[in-house]
Design brief:
By secondary structure, the protein is α/β, with parallel strands linked by helices. It has helices spanning about 20-30, 50-70, 85-95, 120-125, 145-155, 165, 175-185, 205-215, 220-235, 255-260, and strands spanning about 1-5, 35-40, 40-45, 75, 80, 105-110, 130-135, 160-165, 190. It has a single domain (about 1-260), classed as Metal-dependent hydrolases (TIM Barrel), CATH 3.20.20. It has ten helices and nine strands. It starts with a strand and ends in a 9-residue tail after the last helix. Keywords: Hydrolase.
Length: about 270
């Protein structure tokens, strides 16, 4: 599996605070079946002042230590970029690294407040040639009234990344239900760990993959944790990797499952 969202680089944001923690995270990831991990520290002006050159330097140092200790995890560059006015300029000049130098990048909206002109800002990034992968919308406090906005952005070319831990209940029932809705209704492109530590928020995605497999089948589960992530790293056009066409009929497993959950099947 490929994990495209992690905070494993030590000491540069709210993720791993020491090298030992980062190494423990890497061991957990490998044991879970992850062979490639994107290092995606926060870039948020005024709070986390990371940039492309600094991130790549930190990756080289950690990869060297992984190799020295025979931990079979390949690291690639990226960032968890906050939606700020200067984001497009940062992408263009390399201060904000895309995922492995591709057209794809992780885009993190504010957790607590809908960004002004959210849809217009994201569409401008798409129109400029990038494919934003919007991170963990299921955990945003304002998702309840804005679910349709994310579906419109998907139609315009954005991708959606759901947190593995949200699907397993780590972030509570509300995040779990919204994560399940994005997944079951066919609006999820990628599952990733968003790992921050070797304890509660560790780099595990196999359990979430199993949930996806039960709901959507083995083929789509592979799309979520391997095929589409690899397409990102290979900078493949997004239209070659469409979302599943889910049109559940009355009496099917999916429609029965959806009707039992809060939010599922309800108008957002």
């Amino acid at each position: 599996m490929i994990d495209l969202h992690s905070h494993i680089l030590p000491g540069i944001d709210d993720g791993a605070q020491t090298l030992d923690i980062a190494l423990d995270m890497a061991r957990i990831a490998v044991a879970d079946g992850i062979h490639t991990m994107a290092c995606t520290p926060h870039i948020n002006p005024g709070m986390y002042m990371n940039d492309g050159p600094g991130i790549r330097k930190a990756i080289a140092a950690l990869q060297s230590e992984l190799d020295r200790q025979c931990i079979a995890l390949k690291l690639v560059a990226g960032a968890d970029a906050h939606l700020v006015p200067e984001l497009l300029e940062g992408l263009r000049d390399g201060r904000v690294p895309t995922l492995h130098g591709s057209r794809y990048f992780l885009l993190e909206p504010s957790h607590t407040t809908p960004p002004p002109n959210f849809e217009g800002s994201v569409f401008n990034l798409i129109a400029s040639g990038y494919t934003p992968i919007i991170t963990h919308p299921e955990r945003l406090t304002w998702i309840d009234g804005h679910y349709p906005a994310f579906l419109r952005l998907i139609d315009q070319g954005a991708w959606i990344q759901i947190t593995a831990g949200a699907l397993t209940g780590m972030f509570g029932r509300r995040a779990q239900h919204w994560g399940e809705r994005f997944l079951a209704e066919g609006h999820t492109h990628i599952i990733a760990s968003d790992a921050h530590s070797a304890s509660r928020r560790s780099p595990r995605i196999s359990e979430a993959k199993a949930i996806a497999q039960r709901l959507l089948g083995e083929e789509e589960a592979q799309q979520l944790v391997m095929v589409r992530p690899q397409a990102v790293l290979d900078n493949q056009p997004s239209h070659l990797f469409p979302l599943p066409d889910l049109q559940p009929k009355k009496g099917t497993f999916l429609s029965r499952w959806a009707s039992k959950l809060p939010f599922i099947g309800q108008k957002a």
